[in-house]
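Subject: design request, 273 residues
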């Protein structure tokens, strides 16, 4: 049968259109996840963190295979991972993190005082005057790679001489470990620490002495710094379809995600509308 060039071109165009339409609604075969290889309880390269477990829930829902791109959570992490095109999804990011688009949140937490239960402290506020006489540990680097909200808030009250801890581990055995700040409280080398909830909850449970956790308020009235953050997944701004897909997965699998967070002792506070 004779087929003209125009008919052949038309047939090829029609076939391509069918493929494109089908592909537009097909779940991706790979879920390319940005992950830190050394940052428990969030993630590690043995996939033992709660971000790893949540990624597995998402992948199962989408019938996709996880491909992890490992890059430590340090300065330049966004540029060298999701914004660089090496991976497509961050499993956890604070809602409103400007360089990326965030999904609907799936949990919310705040910062906590941590101190030894046998010290007899009754800390309830950053305005407690006893803080001026205590050795206080804080994580120094936040998501925006400036001082964390507690460091700002304590400085605004004239509380100086803080003991700074890094949050980020790398392959160097002498580098900071995420749990160093909690272990320092347990060893009594500092009196109190102010720690982000998920980090606090996980490592407090793993100390040999009882530690007390006291939640800070949503916002600090003195410095104006927020302490509570809603956490979501993140994609590139242009990946609107992927964001919508993840939003629907969060809705469908919310109970599975919450169960994972509870297993890691992540302290969750009420989600704001």
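Subject: RE: design request

Done. Sequence follows.
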């Amino acid at each position: 049968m004779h087929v003209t060039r125009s008919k052949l071109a038309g047939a090829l165009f029609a076939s391509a259109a069918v493929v494109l339409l089908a592909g537009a609604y097909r779940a991706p075969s790979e879920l390319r996840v940005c992950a830190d290889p050394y940052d428990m309880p969030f993630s590690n390269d043995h996939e033992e963190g709660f971000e790893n477990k949540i990624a597995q829930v998402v992948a199962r829902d989408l019938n996709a295979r996880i491909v992890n791109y490992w890059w430590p959570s340090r300065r330049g992490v966004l540029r060298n991972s999701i914004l660089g095109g090496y991976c497509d999804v961050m499993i956890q990011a604070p809602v409103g993190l400007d360089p990326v688009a965030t999904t609907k949140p799936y949990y919310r937490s705040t910062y906590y005082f941590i101190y030894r239960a046998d010290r007899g402290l009754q800390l309830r506020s950053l305005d407690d005057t006893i803080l001026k006489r205590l050795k206080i540990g804080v994580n120094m680097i936040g998501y925006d790679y400036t001082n964390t909200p507690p460091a700002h808030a304590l400085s605004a009250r004239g509380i100086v001489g803080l003991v700074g801890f890094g949050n980020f581990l790398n392959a160097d055995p002498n580098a900071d470990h995420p749990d160093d700040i909690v272990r320092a409280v347990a060893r009594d080398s500092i009196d109190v620490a102010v720690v982000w909830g998920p980090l606090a909850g996980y490592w407090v449970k793993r100390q040999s002495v009882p530690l007390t956790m006291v939640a800070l308020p949503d916002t600090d009235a003195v410095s104006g710094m927020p302490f509570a953050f809603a956490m979501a997944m993140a994609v590139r701004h242009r990946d609107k379809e992927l964001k919508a897909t993840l939003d629907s997965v969060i809705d469908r699998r919310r109970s599975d995600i919450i169960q994972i967070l509870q297993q890691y002792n992540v302290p969750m506070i009420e989600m704001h509308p």
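The chain has two domains: 29-107+229-263, 111-215.
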